[in-house]
Design a protein that fits this description.
The chain is of the alpha/beta class. It has 14 helices and 16 strands. The chain folds into two domains: 136 residues, Aspartate Aminotransferase, domain 1, CATH 3.90.1150; 273 residues, Type I PLP-dependent aspartate aminotransferase-like (Major domain) (Aspartate Aminotransferase, domain 2, 3-Layer(aba) Sandwich), CATH 3.40.640. Helices cover 36% and strands 16% of the residues. A hairpin with a 5-residue loop joins strand 8 and strand 9. Helix 3 packs antiparallel against helix 11, helix 8 runs parallel beside helix 9 and helix 13 crosses helix 14. The radius of gyration is 22 Å and the shape is globular. The N and C termini lie far apart (51 Å). The mean pLDDT is 96.
């Protein structure tokens, strides 16, 4: 065993070792010539602790995965128990208690009609499964002409080629466009892009008209419509009215296309209900889940779908209708055990009630930013809040991307003990549910000071 791995390393030495061998995600590595890498040794609740002992409030839940705090003891105890039982087994022809218990619980808590669970490794993989499964369903039902998908402008569903194909964030998509499928794009019901004086519901109604027009032209060749319910996260924390989901469900039924709900980022209590679709009282044909599913401990995703979809694949082997999609670590017992422990916390603790109180406190704290001369919008859905920085408040003209104003907020946050990682010029908050009102105050105060620095 290499004892050096477990000794407390010097932060600068660990950062140097990292930069000599690693390539980090969603990062221009050249930035680290002037932006120090932050070595972290442990986590405690809503906080990360650096190798130098400095503490950072994790305001982004480590890319939106951590629900109940770092090193949550109940999830950790479940994993330790599972380590002594079974670490992994092939999931074709074999099963195990953690996977069965997880699937049973997901069927119980997801919207009515979702009765079958397909497990995968991460969010992008879940999207790939849903897209392929929808296409394959129609093929098995004798509708091979259905080969296309409809997504929303500003959408983001992941970075594998299928998931990226139904995404519309130029930063991620443009470079790889020659490799991608081309979806039909329906205008997003994003309230921020509404007409002057329009209510969120009126924006949703108008955009449903656009969706109807698109389906009238393309439903015959469309497998599914895929959306992020209520909040388009990576696309800028764009938010919209729940009535859009109600109308979309009706349109998908009318035009005989599937409704895929990407709840990877917004599921498990983020929007104020356990799943965002609940706020519209709708059941999608496919619900994609990941991120918070394991409380931030291990990678895992799930696609929960209907028995009708399942039955389209259920046939004698010779019929050639099987869904031949797999991941080596499908149904990993450790990840499934972390997930069942996470869902147990939702049963044992008043999570959603407490989240509503925390969200109300967060709303009060960020409300004054609406009057800031360089803030175009302050918006919130449950435990997700965002502040849009603009160069001109009257016209909402954005700062040039090359200004990297968000990076200034990020730097300020690190210097003052908060992990804030804006999306371009959008400063957002998506903290763990264990955050306290006092920690919210610190988080918002640090962000406000960072905003002042960024727009100076």
């Amino acid at each position: 065993m290499n004892d050096a791995l477990f000794a407390a390393p010097r932060p600068d030495a660990l950062a140097a070792r990292d930069l000599s061998v690693l390539w980090h995600p969603c990062t221009q590595m050249h930035d680290h010539e002037t932006l120090p890498m932050v070595p972290v040794l442990r986590g405690e609740g809503a906080w990360l602790v650096g190798a130098d002992g400095k503490r950072y409030l994790d305001a982004v839940s480590s890319w939106w995965t951590n629900l109940f705090g770092h090193a949550e003891p109940r999830i950790g105890a479940a994993l330790k128990d599972q380590l002594d039982r079974l670490e992994h087994v092939i999931f074709a022809g074999f099963t195990h208690p953690p996977a069965v218990e997880l699937a049973e619980e997901l069927v119980r808590i997801t919207p009515p009609g979702l009765e079958r669970v397909f497990l995968a490794d991460n969010g992008s993989a879940a999207i790939e499964v849903a897209l392929k499964m929808s296409f394959h369903y129609w093929l098995n039902r004798g509708h091979g002409e259905k080969t296309r998908f409809i997504a929303l402008t500003g959408s983001y569903h992941g970075e594998t080629l299928g998931a990226l194909s139904v995404s519309d964030v130029a930063l991620y998509r443009t470079t790889y466009a020659p490799l991608l499928l081309t979806p039909e794009l329906a205008p997003s019901p994003d309230t921020y892009e509404g007409e002057p004086g329009e209510t969120p519901r009126e924006v949703a109604t108008r955009r449903l008209g656009d969706m109807r027009a698109l389906l009238e032209r393309h439903a015959h060749e469309t497998c599914a419509v895929i959306v992020e319910p209520l909040v388009q996260c990576a696309g800028g924390m764009r938010m919209y009215d729940a009535s859009y989901l109600t109308g979309l469900r009706a349109l998908c039924d009318e035009f005989h296309v599937h409704f895929i709900a990407d709840e990877i980022a917004v599921g498990f209590g983020r929007t104020g209900t356990l799943f965002a679709c609940e706020q519209a009282d709708v059941s999608p044909d496919f619900m994609c889940l990941s991120k918070g599913l394991t409380g931030g401990f291990l990678p895992l995703s799930a696609v929960v779908t209907t028995d009708d979809v399942y039955q389209a694949f259920y046939a004698e082997y010779a019929a050639g209708k099987a869904f031949l999609h797999s991941h080596s670590y499908t149904g990993n017992p450790l990840a499934c055990r972390a997930a069942t422990a996470t869902l147990q916390i939702f049963r044992d603790d008043p999570v959603l009630e407490r989240n509503r109180e925390l969200a109300a406190h967060l709303a009060r704290r960020i409300a004054p930013l609406a009057d800031h001369p360089h803030v175009g919008d302050v918006r919130q859905t449950g435990m997700i809040a965002a502040v849009e920085l603009v160069a001109d408040k009257a016209t909402r003209a954005p700062f040039p991307a090359t200004d990297r104003r968000g990076l200034r907020v990020y730097r300020h946050g690190l210097a003052h003990g908060a992990l804030l990682r804006p999306l371009g010029n959008i400063v957002y908050f998506m903290p763990p549910y264990v955050i306290t009102p006092q920690e919210i105050d610190f988080m918002v105060d640090t962000a406000i000071a960072g905003i002042e620095t960024a727009v100076a």
